[in-house]
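Moderator note: this is an archived Q&A kept for reference. The question asked for a predicted structure of one protein chain; the sequence and the answer are reproduced below.
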Amino acid sequence: MRYLPKSDSERREMLDTIGVSRLEDLLSHLPDEVRLNRPLDIPAGKSEYEIVDYFRALGEKNATWPSFLGAGVYRHYRPVMCDVVVSRGEFLTSYTPYQAEIAQGTLTTIFEFQTMICQLTGMDVANASMYDGSTSVPEAAMMAMRVTQRDHILISRAVHPEYRQVLDTSARNQDMTVEEFGYDSATGASDLASLESKLNGKAAAVIVQTPNFFGCIENVKAAADLAHKHGALMVVVFAEAVSLGLLEPPTEADIVCGELQSFAISPSYGGPYAGVIAAKEKFLRQMPGRLVGQSKDSRGQRAFCLTLSTREQHIRREKATSNICTNQALIALMATVFMTVYGKEGLRELARQNLAKAHYLGAKLDRRFSSPYFNEVVVRTKSSPAAVNAALEKRKLIGGLDLGRFYPELKDCMLLCATEMSKRADMDTVAEVIR
């Protein structure tokens, strides 16, 4: 009755209304051979506290082992304050949280989100968020096509493979040609000579990720100089947002896009996450989605409103810059609270801890690439990466990514990640097993 709250009198009234005397009459038209005519073969119902005990015991079977698996999803500490704020009913239950007349609080948080993203990325404008990092890449590519009136996209093979897959999928239904350029086999960074050989004055954008999929820091300025020399826009991608606490913002870029999962967003088996797209002010009109702006109301008080809404639900379809929602307000709020809790100095210290722990681990192993790296490092393994991960599992540790899955030429290599959550003893064990 708790979940089907109809009283006997209400059921009687409904039966009288439709002209039958009992519930059984509703089934009288069914042949006997299709009716069960016996109780369902399921256990008897449980009380609420028995159900809670059951699921608690089930939850304890989940592995909560230390993890060294990164590759786009990272294990960071989530401040309790984030869940406290996003669990408030004003945020949690909103369906259309951007209506100015009813949701000044949500519009305020989105405005603060946009401001902080601009500060992190060195860009002039940012929108109200994207679905995730992978979908922000094709949105940035399509934005560059609108700006340059070109249809050719050059993307580094050192960009996250799954981000590249999403771009390829989007390109199928766009007038877009996607071409990849390689990475340097010694450094692990994008091969700028390969890039230059493919720039012929037809490219709309050059897309580079930093830190790239191998954890290596890219030379964004050199790549941007090449792109701009040939009239292309520079798009910089990030998958590990914590790196922005330490690395110089990619101000040479025209568009910056990426993923904020590291900012207090739980891995959650792959989502939902919050993506980012930010750009130079002169490209504002070609940004997808929504932007919240600051204004004044009729009384002269500070107020917020949707300044730009360029999706097809708001304007003519042929004029829209995007036909997806492009706003993860609740998830983006988590990242906003995270950035507020940590602040500039806190984020810098968090990034330093990630850097130090990854370099402690990397120094114990056979590094494959020579480039500077942040909190991920590619290492050679004497046994297969799968065998290494199996050995680590026996010690209740989650190992790294077998790079052969995406890069056949790196089948003897593993991508390891260390964050502020990684303990020295666990890192020593990982190094011992790999050696």
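Archived answer notes: The first helix runs from residue 8 to 18.
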